[in-house]
Amino acid sequence: MYVAVKGGEKAIANAHKLLAEDRRGCPDVDELQTRQISEQLGLGVSRIMAEGSLYDKDLCALAMKQARGDMIEAIFLIRAYRTTLPRFSYSVPVDTSKMDIDRRISATFKDLPGGQILGPTFDYTHRLIDFTLEADEQVPKANTSEAGLDDDMPRVLDNLLKGEGLIQSEAVVEDEDSQAVGDLTREPLEFPANRDVRLQNLARGDEGFVLALGYSTQRGYARSHAFVGEIRFGKASLVIEPEELGFAIDIGDIELTECETVNQFQGSKTEPPQFTRGYGLAFGQNERKAISMALVDRALRARELGEDIVAAVQDEEFVLSHSDNIQSTGFVEHIKLPHYVDFQSELELVRRMRRDLEEKNISEKQAAE
Question: What one-character-per-residue DSSP string does 167-221 give?
Answer without folding.
Answer: BPPPP--S-TTTTPPP-TTTS---SSPPHHHHHHHHHHS-HHHHHHHHHHHHTTT
